[in-house]
Amino acid sequence: MLIKVKVNPGSGKFKISLERDLNGPYLRIWLKSQPEKGKANKELLKELKKVFGEVEIVSGASSREKYIKVSNNIKIEEKLRKN
Fold this sequence. Notes:
By secondary structure, the protein is α+β, with helices and mostly antiparallel strands. It has helices at about 40-50, 75-80, and strands at about 1-10, 15-20, 25-30, 55-60, 65-70. It has a single domain, classed as Conserved Hypothetical Protein Mth637, Chain: A, CATH 3.30.1200.10. About 25% of the residues lie in helices and about 40% in strands.
């Protein structure tokens, strides 16, 4: 399953929010790390792995808008409520 993600690096805290725009749902994620030398992407993958299991960035590695692949078919809203 592919999930659209919009990240805000350097925000001082980690937080996930499910939001919607005209194109559908996406995850807004605030990261502690700065976007230097892959630190923000490492934090993103580490934290999302805790919530969704195996994940990988499939596009947008150097962008604030990314697409991540989640290995199992999940209901995002249910997973976010549990964590």
